[in-house]
Amino acid sequence: MAEHHFLFKTILIGNSGVGKTSIITRYVDKIYTENFISTIGVDFKIKTIELDGNIVKLQIWDTAGQERFRAITTSYYRGSQCILIVFDVTDRESFNEIPSWIQEIKKKCVKNPLIVVLGNKIDDKDKLDVTEDEVKNFIKKESFLKDCLYRFISAKENTNIDDIFITVVKKLMERVSLEEPDNEKDLGDITFTENQKRCC
């Protein structure tokens, strides 16, 4: 029996403190803690799931949000089939920084990753500073995000965490079925056509 049928690499980016590590730990380890130390450089976890009769291994990379670490994380964009841009719905500045993270993707990606925008910390209802309509409008105006997914989530309350990762896996599996050149199902080996590329 194969160890896995699909291997996908995903990476979470976004400002420091938006909850990237909490999201990953909630999804992979099913735990949540308030006491995370800021990620230095990069870290990753692996989640193996069974979906539609296939065993899927998901590499989920966690990156530091601080400006001084961005050069270190450059190489980790390469080969990523999905990039999740995380912002904090109680921190407007983290939402306003999304365009700069998009520029990072454009500079560092070679292939066409699936883009996901995640608004974390919706559990903190008294401090909400970014609305879902604002996110929808931003995505609509940003041509680079025309095929992207978005969710409002809470790592603390486990809201929409499993849902978004399952949706990501399904989307990536669909891409493989459309682009699969032979029997190899690792999306990292697939070359997209020029019309499909959004990254430089």
TrEMBL record:
One Pfam family matching this protein: Ras
Organism ancestry: Eukaryota, Fungi, Fungi incertae sedis, Microsporidia, Pseudoloma
Molecular function GO labels: GTP binding; GTPase activity
PANTHER family xref list: RAS-RELATED PROTEIN RAB
GO cellular component, one term: endomembrane system
Domain of life: Eukaryota
Cellular localisation: Endomembrane system
Protein name in UniProt: GTPase Rab1/YPT1, small G protein superfamily
Keywords: GTP-binding, Membrane, Nucleotide-binding
InterPro entries xrefs: P-loop_NTPase, Rab, Small_GTP-bd, Small_GTPase
SMART domains given in the database record: RAB, RAN, RAS, RHO
Keyword Cell cycle in record: no
